Amino acid sequence: MRIGAVVYLNTCPLVAELPRLAPHVEIIFDVPSRLAQMLADGQIDAGVVPSIEVARHPEWRIVSDACIACRGQVKSVKLFSRVPIPAIQLLALDEGSRTSAVLARILLQERYGLQPELTTLPIGFPAWDSPADAVVLIGDRAIRAPEDGFCEVWDLGQQWVRWTGLPMVFALWAARPDADLTALDRLLRESRDAGLEKLPEIARREAPSRQLSEQQCLQYFQDHLFFVLGEQEKTGLRRFYDLARQYGFLTPEGLRMSSDASKKAAN
Fold first, then answer.
1. Cα 114 to Cα 46: distance, rounded to the nearest angstrom
2. Crossing angle of helices 259-266 and 99-112, rounded to 10°
3. In which domain, by residue range, is 136 found?
4. Are residues 154 and 251 in the same domain?
């Protein structure tokens, strides 16, 4: 079985113990947007994919209650703005993002009535070099990115929780309907639970390559992420899907819609 896992720090507790528990499984690491495409193309059997992509692919099956969520500040999903939020006209979206890109657009629309024009921030391209008024960054580089020089910085997890009172689910384990799912749910739960028991060890191992301190990694795991798809998370996910559907973001063209197209979808 080929399983896709997000290359960022947030997924380490879910998969750190997977090679020990299932040595026969091949793990492929990539950014969320590419994992979603790989699952759609049949290049992997299951993967940690953006939650918005699960709604766009009703044929996929959620195969575990292991997830990547937050109940407050998430640290690794941020909007950096050079101008006051209501003045944003051009928004750059992290190329690796799917869920966070939709989340940012929902929050801007719902809170400020904004439908900015969109551009892409390539993976590895510094946010401060983008000509856009604001930039959405995800993953390790969002944690490390300096906030100096920006007018406002939004932690998108925190903004969602404050606005809705609900958790935000960024990614889920999903599988293709033709994949061999025998015991996969149990395996992914065991992998998560084993990883959560070894957070200090994982933080110590991952810190150097992530250009973060061991304490930063451990605090991120313990204080900013939630790894169980509970009832509150499901409620938050339904609210997110309802809003994404309202604005037309569940279609394959959702992330490429112009401001004018967004207005039509909203109406």
1. 36
2. 70
3. 77-167+232-266
4. yes
Yes or no: say if 184 and 176 are a contact pair by the CB < 8 Å rule.
no
Alpha-carbon distance of 228 to 239, in angstroms, equals: 18
| Number of separate domains in the chain | 2
**pLDDT at position 129:** 86
Q: Cα(251)–Cα(83) distance, rounded to whole angstroms?
A: 30
Alpha-carbon torsion, ordered 120, 29, 38, 177, to 10 deg: -130
Give the pLDDT confidence score for residue 267 in this predicted structure. 27
Same domain as 186, residue 106: no
Res. 229: pLDDT tops 90: yes
86 and 63, same structural domain? Answer: no
| CA quadruple 208, 211, 214, 217: dihedral sign | negative
Collapsed DSSP state (helix, strand, coil) of residue 191:
helix
Q: What is the pLDDT of residue 125?
A: 84
